[in-house]
Specification:
With 358 residues, this protein is an alpha/beta fold. It folds into 2 domains: 5-138 and 336-356, ATPase, nucleotide binding domain (Nucleotidyltransferase, domain 5, 2-Layer Sandwich), CATH 3.30.420; 174-332, ATPase, nucleotide binding domain (Nucleotidyltransferase, domain 5, 2-Layer Sandwich), CATH 3.30.420. The chain is built from 13 helices and 12 strands. The strands form 2 sheets. A 7-stranded mixed beta sheet has the order 3-2-1-4-6-5-12, with helices on both faces. It has a 5-stranded mixed beta sheet with strand order 9-8-7-10-11, with helices on both faces. Strand 2 (15-22) and strand 3 form a beta hairpin. Helix 2 packs across helix 4, helix 6 packs across helix 13 and helix 11 crosses helix 12 (312-322). The longest helix has 24 residues, at 271-294. The radius of gyration is 21 Å and the shape is globular. The protein starts with a strand and ends with a strand.
Length: 358
């Protein structure tokens, strides 16, 4: 079998993950952590591009590989303008839009993925790609209205991992993904619950804005109570953002965010910890039920993924709530590098056509 070496890159807030695959077989994977002092000199996320590119290039060299060995490079897709799902060829138009910043929906390290992939691929004269970015938007029109025209619902989700496990679920069910309806739940530091109809993500909760609370995020909140909190003058914008997105959810109630450690407290008789965890799963199940309604009850499977899916207590309780909808499948973890590689292989193997960013 002809070698197809694909270099996959996933820039995160405090780390850069990189992996090399031959077809879908992992050759090596590294998670390179960045000390805050390393990133402090950079005024913007964009300024980190050369620093992170060089780290990936050095890693490739340390592992004994050259650019000439590669067939393609793929980077994590960022918060670009709304896009359909799929595998996209990195273009100069995308590079210009990232550098300009006018179409970006948030300043996040994932925006660097395509830039780094392009910088490496250009040297090797091979294609660069990004796959299923967080800005995948296939929502139906009804899902976009929030209740006020000044506050539209925005599609930002863990699309990369969501679509990969949807493909895996389809393989297990023995049907093409575009013939199935699924509720897919990504359970991480933020929770994305999605309705997939025939392969399209027709609705999703934005993990920063609504949906269930998670280990560190509040999810949807009572509007009038939130208004009073904002107008109280006790908190500035930065403090509120931290409260809602980094120190909300389970952490706000218990001062702890790790579900495994909290479960040990529950087993030792901590009733408050038990209530908080059950309430979190209850909200997840309600959101999944709503997405099943968006699919008119025609659900072939409920698919659970993300880091929290390693905890069988969470997945078992969700199964108790949701098994009436259909088969419940669990794929723990967040395998972004594998997902990126699989996206490129679908194009290389002519399973789907590469898409163009315009």
């Amino acid at each position: 079998m002809e070698k197809k070496l694909i270099l996959a890159i996933n820039p995160g807030g405090t780390s850069t993950k990189a992996g090399l695959y031959n077809h879908d077989e992992l050759i090596f994977e590294e998670n390179i952590h960045h000390d805050p002092s390393e990133l402090e000199p950079f005024l913007t996320t964009f300024d980190q591009m050369d620093f992170r590119r060089d780290i990936v290039m050095n890693l490739l060299k340390e592992k004994g590989y050259n650019l000439e060995d590669l067939s393609a490079v793929v980077g994590r897709g960022g918060t670009f303008k709304s896009l359909a799902s799929g595998t996209y060829r990195v273009s100069t138009k995308l590079l210009d839009d990232i550098k300009d910043g006018s179409t970006l929906q948030a300043d996040h390290p994932s925006n660097l993925g395509a830039l780094i992939a392009w910088a490496i691929a250009e040297k090797a004269a091979i294609p660069a790609y990004f796959v299923d970015p967080v800005c995948v938007d296939e929502m139906i029109d009804e899902a976009r209205l929030s209740g006020h025209p000044l506050l539209p619902r925005v599609s930002l989700s863990h699309a990369l991992n969501i679509r990969m496990v949807a493909y895996k679920a389809a393989e297990k069910l023995g049907k093409p993904m575009n013939q199935l309806n699924m509720v897919v739940m990504h359970l991480g530091s933020g929770v994305s619950v999605n309705a997939l109809r025939k392969g399209k993500m027709i609705d999703t909760n934005n993990a920063n804005d609504d949906g269930p609370f998670s280990s560190t995020r509040t999810g949807g909140l009572p509007i009038t109570g939130l208004m009073k909190l904002i107008l109280s003058g006790k908190y500035n914008a930065g403090e509120l953002k931290k409260m809602l997105l980094k120190k909300g959810g389970v952490f706000a109630y218990l001062g702890e965010e790790h579900v495994g450690r909290i479960r040990k407290k529950v087993e030792a008789g901590d009733e408050k910890a038990d209530l908080v965890l059950r309430a979190m799963v209850y909200q997840m199940a309600k959101e999944a039920g709503g997405m099943a309604a968006a699919l008119r009850g025609e659900v072939d499977a409920v698919v659970i993924t993300g880091g929290m899916a390693y905890n069988s207590w969470v997945t078992d309780l969700l199964g108790d709530y949701l098994s009436y909808l259909g088969e419940v499948l669990v794929f723990p973890g967040e395998a972004e590098l594998e997902a990126l590689t699989r996206g490129v292989l679908r194009v290389m193997n002519n399973i789907e056509e590469e898409k163009q960013y315009t």
